[in-house]
Each structure stands twice: as C-alpha cells, then as structure tokens.
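Recall that a protein's primary structure is simply its ordered list of amino acids. Everything else, from secondary elements to tertiary packing, is in principle encoded there. The following example makes that idea concrete.
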Amino acid sequence: MNRTWKTIGKSVFSPVGNNKRKEIEIKTFKKERIIVIGSELHYDSFWLKMMFIGAATGQLRLSKGKADKTTIAYVSDGYTNLEIGVLEYWCNHNRFDVFKLCFQEDLIKLMNKDRDEYKIINLIIFSHGYPGTINLNYKGDSKISVTASTLNTFISNAFALDGEVFSYACRTGISRTTRESFYSDNDAQPEHSLAQQLANYFGISVYAFLTRTFYGDILRQRDKATSRQLSENLKKLRTTGGDFSVYKLSDEHEALPHPGLADGIFKFGSKREGTNGFALWRKQGGRMLPSSGETPTGLTKGLVKFTPKEKRE
C-alpha cells in the first residue's frame, strides 16, 4: 500500500518513552487485526451488493503476517445466507475468526474483548459513512455505528502503540456535512473530523478519505463491454435455468441469486439488462481496495493520515 500520505495532526509522544513501552508491549501482548464489514442496504444493485465483502476479501490477501490473529466482523442485514457463506468460506480458508454484529453492544464487545491478552494492530472498516459517523448498518433496523459519542464505550488503550485504523467509509476525514465543494482541505475542517477524534482517543494513526469512497471497481473492470457481456450472459442463462441457481458468467465472475434485489417498481433498467434478483461476485475476491470518489470537490484524494494531537497515557 502506498504510504505517501498527507498528514493531519501532530504526535507529541516521546520517542524514547515509546520505544521502552513498545518493548514491554511486545513481551506482554499478542496482536489482533480486525476487519469490519458493514451491511449493504443502500444500493439496490446487482453490481454493488457485494462491494463491502469484495473489498474485505481483497484486503485479506494484503493482510499477511504481523497479527497473531485476524477477526472478521460483519453486519448481516441485507445479505442472503449464500452471500454470508461466501464470506465465511474466505474466513474458514484462512483460519480467521468470525464475529457477527447484530447490535451496538456487539461492536463494543468486539473492541473491548480480550484486551488483556491482545492489542489491536489494525482496524480496517468497509462500510457506509458520512461526516462524523461510520455507519455499519446504514438504513438497517439496528443502529451500529462509530461516532464521537460512542468512543468512550471503547477501551482507550485497546490498540498497540503502532496500531492503525483504516476507514473506507465516506468522508470520515471531514467534519462539515452540507457542502459539496470546498476551497481547500482546511475549509472542510478535518481537525474536527471523526478521523481526528479516533486518532486522539486511541493515540494512534488513522487513515481516512476526505471525499466519498468509490467501490465501483472492486468486483469488475468498469468498462461498457465487460458489463454488457456479464449482464447478457446472466440474462441468457436464467431464461433456461431459472432465478435460483448460481451462474458462472465468466472465468472470474458468477451471479448469486438474491430474491427481490433490484426488483422494485422503478427498477426498469435492472430488469431490462436481466440482473434483477442476483448479486455479482468475483470468485477470486475483490480486485483492489476502494478509492477516492469525485465529491466533494476541492479536497485531497486518497487516504489521508491523521495523527494524535494529545499524548497517550
């Protein structure tokens, strides 16, 4: 991963003190990597239903070494058993722990459990979000989120000294909510953002987007020819095989049956292309990690690094 970052915030930790504490920490604690996958209820789409799970599987291929255990936490709302089964297969194949998030209390438990034995080395989040909120169940019945008001429910020293948070939720790095265009990063007040508050509270580095997040390239190459071929293949296959089978669309892609997906009264486009009632999946997992979207304009693209402004106790 490219580590040429624009950095916001300034660490005031003592290097000498940190080195000694790090030596003690290495002898005392094991390290845990946590990957969190939010629900997908916002985009009623064949192309995007599996975007968070796809991004997480792409991350899993990059997350080698360093951690003593990896935990995959997910919100199941909006996914079929088959779609969750795809994720659980990846977890079982790699011997990762699986943790289901049904309520806010589950998120608190995830962040606080076993911290006398494990410190968090990475927390990587794929979900919806907006300034001030990482929303793990956007449009879902149960509220599961990370905000400034939820931070004090988490143990403040849950992270290793070199722990990091990567938020791939939209606009975690800004605090102004109503603007679609800014003169500069400072105009968006990143110093008051949730990313900065996370950095301050846990005493670690946080990487986040100032812009919205783009997930459109996670599962497919977004050219018209590829998209047209995939949809045409699905439309042809389901005319003879029905709407409840898993279909191979290419060497890379398959269609997972998802009754009701994109079947709404105004979903003429999905019905015309034959993708309603199915979710796209790439058998090798996500192609890449999410990237910066185009909006709001005037802001730095890519992940921006936020560092603590206060000394970690």
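The chain has two domains: 7-217+288-306, 224-282. The first helix runs from residue 15 to 28.
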